[in-house]
Amino acid sequence: MRRTMLFLPGNTPNMLINGDVLGADSIILDLEDAVSPDEKDAARILVRNALKYQKAETCETIIRINPTESGFWMKDLDEVIPYKPHLIMPTKVDSAQVVQKVSAYIAEVEARHGMEVGKIGILPLIETALGVEQAFQIASADPRVVGLFLGGEDLTADLQCKRTKEGKEIFYSRSRIVCAARACGIEAYDTPFTDVEDSEGLVKDTKLAKSLGFSGKAVISPRHVETVNELFSPTQADIEYAHDVMDAIEEGKRQGKGVISLRGKMIDAPIVKRAQQVLEMELQMLGGVSIE
Amino acid sequence: MNKLRETLREAIVEAGVKDGMTISFHHHLRNGDYVLNMVLEEIAALGIHDLTVNASSIFDVHEPIIEHLKNKVVTGLEVNYMGGKVGRAITEGIMEKPVIFRSHGGRAGDMENGSSKVDVAFIAAPCADDMGNLSGKYGPSACGSMGYAFSDAMYADKVVAVTDHLEAYPLADVSIPEGYVDMVVCVDKIGEASRIVSGTTRITKDPVGLRIAYLAAQVVKHSGYLKDGFSFQTGAGGASLAVAKYVEEMMEKEHIQGSFCMGGITGYLVSMMKKGLFKTILDVQCFDMEAIESIRDNANHQEISATRYASPQAKSCAVDSLDVVILGATQVDLDFNVNVHTDSQGYIMGGSGGHCDTAAGSKLSIVVAPLIRARLPLIVDEVLCKSTPGETVDVIVTQRGIAVNPKRTELKELLVKAGLPVKEIKELKEIAEAITGVPQQVKPEGRVVAKVLYRDGVEIDTIKSVK
Amino acid sequence: MKIVKNAVAGTLESSDIFIRVEPSEQLEIDIESVVKDQYYKAIYQAVDEVLKEFQVANGKFSINDRGALDCVIRARMETAVKRGGEC
Question: Per the CB < 8 Å rule, is B375 touching C39?
Fold first, then answer.
């Protein structure tokens, strides 16, 4: 469950120490844009030590590494891989080859440290026009890929259009990402809403992302976590309905019925699948603070 | 009868201030107060020595008192709160006689029962008439409520009002009436307006503070007290205000009609009252301009004295009717005792104020604080100063978990059932120390530099000097 | 490693630590900290272990700690050593 993925700057000790208590399902420790080029070395060592000594227990840890055309990305992986972050987020991914290159190097580091190869996942950040057009190839490039993550800011620059709060300019890209991800049976995650003060805008943008099929959304401010979590969580009614569906199926099985209906509607495979997903999320949500 | 005196010096002489006496001040002008410094300067110039100053609070603006302490003009100090600058000098041992710390309720109570005697009270009055009717609501140095000054006016032998805004007799809207006041002095300025109140008080943006506030609000919600008739007190600090924000959202959503809110009043609480979430505000102190405007214009926003707020000597006081209070802490120990007097090194930088009063009176007292501040864990084996006894503290809320006083078994069950991260206080200590490493114990072992009296006037702890 | 040039690492923000390193024949370590009373030994130990790990035997280290956790102290020390040193 990644309703929220919270970006934290990689070179700020205070944020790294408290990142796991801010309510996000995942935290993204950022070695890329949040760190200036002359501090890359310091951030890399700090993030590695945070993984080594202060591993977050209540949420997943994702490391955003520098682009493969930069001189930094292999050093980034050298430092962090031995301490087993859950996911690596390569940036500016515009082809299957980029994912494969990163995956191969992760495997090399894993092997070097006697680790089981293939345990660490990849969540590619797609933020170029080429990347969007290659979405399906990227999604199916490597078994490590767990989802696709759309980055709207760099993308609009590449598309040569203005990034707006309404987001019409990235509508196609959002849909394409979701479709490519779902076609490969993996997750899709939406770009963050960048106006920290605009809570109404955040709600609108998050509702839109959910309606398009995204599984969650990145956030750049801890203050956005609660809203996004809430909107990507099943409602109480959803949960009750899911329980009813599963109960009806159990009951149907006992009675040996072939066709099962609930509230006058036939329960078919998609409804069951959806109910299972809702119950899975309920289970995970019960692990933390109750969300209303 | 003429109560108006030309100069402060004239009033001091006529009031009969002499060696060995006790003079008092209130702190409504907070860090913008000129009056305490002004009076002590005149007294020093008159060659008077060996005074005891009973000030409801000492702030950093009162730093000049350190010179008067060195020169033995002032040899006794009694306060409810002391800021870090004077606090440091005290902790380093500048005074021979220990400072006496009381709570807001305790100070009023001790004046009422005569155990704390004041010879001359100097009352900073933002607005006055020439017969000594006083108000804090008007004038260039307006501070709103004058709640802490009432007991000084009522129980001191002589009362001198110091104002910078004189109105024609009779003042229309009076807080302290003329019957208590002996003399009135008009000076150029009694305070620095921008330091008396803040423009607007803002909710914290610190993500950890917000997380703590969110969890504290969840505790309020699931405690069972959040229902019609709910009463609430929170401080004016950024994190406390954030709790108010979350409580406001829950009250609106559930259509809850509260009864009163109290404490340091800010525009935030005023807007909650205006929305109808609370029937009335009981205001012993205003913290911003909006609160001052409201207490002036809105009949539902009442000024209350420290006695009505929290005096244990009164037949009843408002804290006894309080449901929930949100409080801070620099340290908490395994017995839930709270330190708000010193920092982790033992230097004085605060005081009880209304902390122990509200903890004792309220049905639910919640302490909110980060589990770790700059590597220092909040939870310690034993607090350096027992400001508020653990028996009166119900819940500790940190970003990494909530500890419930073992006395409150039902409350604990409610919070566990609600899915909140409830932990034993010992567990919270271990969680913190797993992150920070176990700190070496710091325990000042010098002579006693301050005595802390509980709200009933009985000594609860002492503070020792730091080398 | 040998410290051959001036370098700095970290910041003076709360929970961070600022380290300045300069070439020097001897090893000199000066530690200032807001939590000196509680954690001086722990800070010294972390600093010392990083120096040993990278076999640093010279250099003047001026350290100003703002309540950094052990892992932060070690990270900033390593950064300072790598920036100011050569093998």
Answer: yes
Q: Does A170 touch chain C (CB under 8 A)?
A: no
Q: Which residue in the set A54, A222, A290 is minimally distant from B207, CB to CB? A: A222
A52 at C interface, C-beta within 8 A: yes
Tell me the mean pLDDT in the region A169-178. 97
- Domains of chain B (ranges; CATH) run 4-196 (3.40.1080.10), 207-442 (3.40.1080.10)
Please indicate, yes or no, whether residues A200 and A85 belong to a single structural domain of this protein: yes
The tokens of B262 are what?
């109290």
User: Rounded to the nearest 5°, which phi and psi values hold at B369?
Assistant: -165, 150
A170 and A274 co-located in one domain: no
Q: Do A164 and A270 belong together in one domain?
A: no
**A222–chain B Cβ distance below 8 A for any pair:** yes
pLDDT of residue B235: 79
Q: pLDDT by residue (tens digit) across A48-78?
A: 999 998 777 778 999 999 999 998 999 999 9
- Which has the closest alpha carbon to B104: B286, B349, B311? B311
Inter-chain contact C42–B442, Cβ cutoff 8 Å? no
pLDDT-derived band at A291, boundaries 50, 70, 90: very low
> How far B263 CA lies from chain A's nearest CA (Å)?
27
- Which residue segment(s) compose the domain that C47 sits in? 2-86
**How many domains would you assign to chain A?**
2
- Where in the sequence is the domain holding A265, given as residue range(s)? 236-285
Question: Do A128 and A143 belong to one domain?
Answer: yes
Domain check: are A158 and A272 in the same one? no
Chain A contact set for B217 (CB, 8 A)? none
Residues A129 and A73 both lie in one domain: yes
H, E, C per residue of chain A = CCCEEEEEECCCHHHHHHHHHCCCCEEEEECCCCCCHHHHHHHHHHHHHHHHHCCCCCCEEEEECCCCCCCCHHHHHHHHHHHCCCEEECCCCCCHHHHHHHHHHHHHHHHHCCCCCCCCEECCEECCHHHHHCHHHHHCCCCCECEEEECHHHHHHHHCCCCCCCCHHHHHHHHHHHHHHHHCCCEEEECCCCCCCCHHHHHHHHHHHHHHCCCEEEECCHHHHHHHHHHHCCCHHHHHHHHHHHHHHHHHHHHCCCCCEECCEECCHHHHHHHHHHHHHHHHHCCCCCCC
For residue B200, name the pLDDT band (cuts at 50, 70, 90).
Answer: low
**A259, A216: one domain:** no
Total of domains in chain C:
1
Q: What is d(CA B232, CA B211) in angstroms, rounded to the nearest whole number?
A: 20
Q: Is residue A290 part of a domain?
A: no
The CATH code of the domain that includes C43 is 3.30.230.10
One domain, residues A85 and A199 = yes
Residue A31 falls inside a structural domain: yes
The reply to whether A68 falls in a domain is yes
CATH no. for residue A66?
A: 3.20.20.60
Cβ atoms C85, C56 nearer than 8 A: yes
3-state secondary structure of B214: helix
Domain contains A138: yes
CA distance C22 to chain A (A): 18
Tens digits of per-residue pLDDT, B346-368?
999 999 999 999 999 999 999 99
| Contact check, Cβ <8 Å, C10/A49 | no
Q: With DSSP H G I counted as helix, E B as strand and the rest as coil, what are the percentages for chain C, rounded to 5?
A: 40, 30, 30
What percentage of chain B carries pLDDT values higher than 90?
92
**HEC per residue, A232-253:** HCCCHHHHHHHHHHHHHHHHHH
Q: Kindly list the distances between the CA atom of residue B152 and the CA atoms of B11, B35, B108, B111, C52, in Å, as whole numbers in the listed order.
A: 17, 15, 8, 8, 65
Tell me the ipTM for this assembly. Answer: 0.96
Interchain contact A17–C (C-beta under 8 A):
yes
User: Which residues are paired to A65 by β-bridges?
Assistant: none
